[in-house]
Specification:
The protein is an alpha/beta fold and 279 residues long. The chain contains 10 helices and 8 strands. The strands form 2 sheets. A 6-stranded mixed β-sheet has the order 3-2-1-4-6-5, with helices on both faces. Strands 7-8 form a two-stranded antiparallel ribbon. A hairpin with a 2-residue loop joins strand 7 and strand 8. Helix 7 packs across helix 9.
Length: 279
């Protein structure tokens, strides 16, 4: 009689079997192409409690099992002031997925929510990253891994163009400017959000959405659509995809093939350059 697989084994198996083409292969492609994981790395896998970071944790754990590269993983959860129900959901999901999380607390939500002008989201994101870098460094890590995916890359690029008056993408890895020797990596850089959503539904997994006070009154469906500029971009791409199925892939390829010779201006190293400089 064949041995019956456990719930966790079925979830892990779905990544490398059912969703091999949609999730596992693009994950491996990103790790290899951008050289995200190296011998001797100690990586803090930063788990927010959402679908993206939880899947990232499973992907990196599976990579650790099969890779010839020797590296360590620490599963780091920062509680910036979650509602107790959200904190409980994170801990329950981590237990179900067999992820040994290390939890530390901060007061980021209190600080960011106290901002009187504009959205506190940018401030919150910067503060969260700083706290994660500091804790990871304290634990002896040289890298932090964030759960940004292919769809985030596309949306961020369009957000910069439409609302920030700049062409600025999201790098698959970058060195920290404030924490010497630390690096940020994005292992799911090539994984589409649609595939992540399908994987979660396939395994009947329910993760927290954005759990901050600023957005907790907004309605969020399982596809992550709420009320923000990012969600406007998400809906725009969804509409464009109806007539051009390759729209996201084309945007992704375009940020890998920027032709500076055709740009009237560009920035590098924080300095602005005009085509007139060498005209």
């Amino acid at each position: 009689m064949a041995r019956q697989l456990t719930d966790l084994q079925l979830i892990e198996r779905s990544i490398i079997k059912t969703y091999r083409k949609e999730i596992w292969n693009p994950f491996i492609e990103g790790v290899k192409n951008y050289r995200l994981v190296n011998e001797g790395d100690k990586i803090a896998v930063c788990i927010s409690g959402g679908k993206d970071s939880m899947l990232m944790a499973l992907l990196l754990r599976q990579l650790q099992r099969v890779s010839e590269t020797d590296f360590e993983l620490v599963y780091l959860v920062m509680d910036p002031g979650y509602h107790p129900a959200n904190r409980q959901r994170i801990e329950e999901n981590a237990a179900r997925l067999g992820i040994p999380i290390t939890v530390f607390e901060s007061s980021i939500f209190d600080v960011a929510y106290g901002v009187n002008e504009g959205s506190p989201c940018y401030l919150c994101a910067r503060m969260r990253r700083g706290h994660l870098y500091a804790k990871a460094q304290e634990l002896g890590c040289n890298k932090i891994a964030l759960g940004h995916h292919f769809t985030d890359v596309i949306e961020t690029t369009l957000l910069g163009m439409f609302y920030g008056s700049q062409i600025q993408a999201m790098l698959p890895k970058l060195h920290s400017t404030n924490f010497e020797g630390m690096e940020l990596i994005r292992p799911m850089y090539c994984v589409h959000e649609d595939a992540i959503i399908r994987w979660a539904k396939h395994n009947d997994l329910h993760f927290i959405q954005c759990a901050c006070r600023f957005t907790e009154s907004y309605h969020h469906s399982d596809d992550g659509i709420g009320k923000s500029k990012r969600q406007e971009i998400k809906m725009l791409i969804k509409d464009l995809r109806k007539t051009n199925p390759d729209i996201e892939h084309n945007i992704f390829k375009s940020i890998h093939a920027v032709c500076l010779d055709t740009m009237p201006g560009y920035k590098t190293g924080g300095e602005y350059h005009s085509f007139l400089d060498n005209y």
